[in-house]
Amino acid sequence: MKKVTKQVMAFTVIFGAAMLISCGGGDKAPAEETAATPTETTVEAAPAKDGAQFFQTSGCVACHQMDAKTVGPAIKEIAKAYADEAALTSFLKGESKAIVDPAQEAVMDPQVEITKKMSAEDLQVIVSYIMSNK
Ligand code: HEC
User: Fold this and answer.
1) Is 124's C-beta closer than 6 angstroms to any atom of ligand 1?
2) How far apart are CA 2 and CA 13, in angstroms?
3) In sequence order, what are the residues at sequence separation of 6 or more whose Cβ sits closer than 8 angstroms to the Cβ of residue 68?
4) In Å, how far are 7, 8, 9, 11, 43 from 4, measured between CA atoms?
5) Are 60 and 74 in contact (CB under 8 A)?
6) Residue nearest (by alpha carbon) to ligand 1 atom 36
7) What's the CA-to-centroid distance between 64 and ligand 1, angstroms?
8) Is the CB–ligand 1 distance for residue 60 below 6 Å?
9) Full pLDDT tens readout for the chain, 134 residues
10) Which of 104, 94, 113 is nearest to 69 (CA)?
11) Rounded Cα–Cα distance for residues 104 and 91 (Å)
């Protein structure tokens, strides 16, 4: 009987310690939540991605400048060549062929592999950005 009591006490001590630890964690949780909330709010409240910036962070500027042909055609040249956003979206989804500089299509092909995997929202940001420079 005495032995059992000891075991129960030992259990109680361990359990108590575990509770203390988990309570410590529990105290932290709301703090983390509070910290996370403004971030989430910022993401939700943020306007649609900035087109120029997204075009840059997606690596497109490495080959596409606004006015001048570099490795790829100028953004303005692409915008002029495409009748509407739907047609440009179709190219970037890999659903239609190049119309601006078909001879160089092989250089752009790996990029289309990237753009066709983008979310519809992200692709729309790029398409709107290009077409806004007609
Ligand atoms: C390694 C250089 C390179 C990068 C990086 C690049 N492009 Fe291109 N791009 C080209 C070349 C070269 C062409 C010309 C061939 C062609 O017209 O498909 C081109 C053509 C295009 C065209 C015109 C397609 C047509 O109808 O002829 C669009 C639109 C385009 N790129 C969008 C993008 C976007 C959006 C990105 C970023 C995700 C990007 N490019 C990144 C090289 C590049």
Assistant:
1) no
2) 17
3) 74
4) 5, 6, 9, 10, 56
5) no
6) 60
7) 7
8) yes
9) 555 555 554 444 444 444 444 444 445 555 555 555 555 555 566 666 899 999 999 999 999 999 999 999 999 999 999 999 999 999 999 999 999 999 999 999 999 999 999 999 999 999 999 999 99
10) 104
11) 14
Residue with tokens 């729309």: 124
- Measured CA to CA, the distance from residue 64 to residue 74 in angstroms comes to 6
Residue 125 Cβ contacting ligand 1 at under 6 Å: no
> What number of other Cβ atoms are within 10 A of residue 44's Cβ?
7
Ligand 1 centroid from CA 46, angstroms: 28
d(CA 91, CA 52): 19
| Ligand 1 neighbour 65 (Cβ under 6 A) | no
The finding on whether 104 has its CB within 6 A of some atom of ligand 1 is yes
Q: Which amino acid is at 22?
A: S
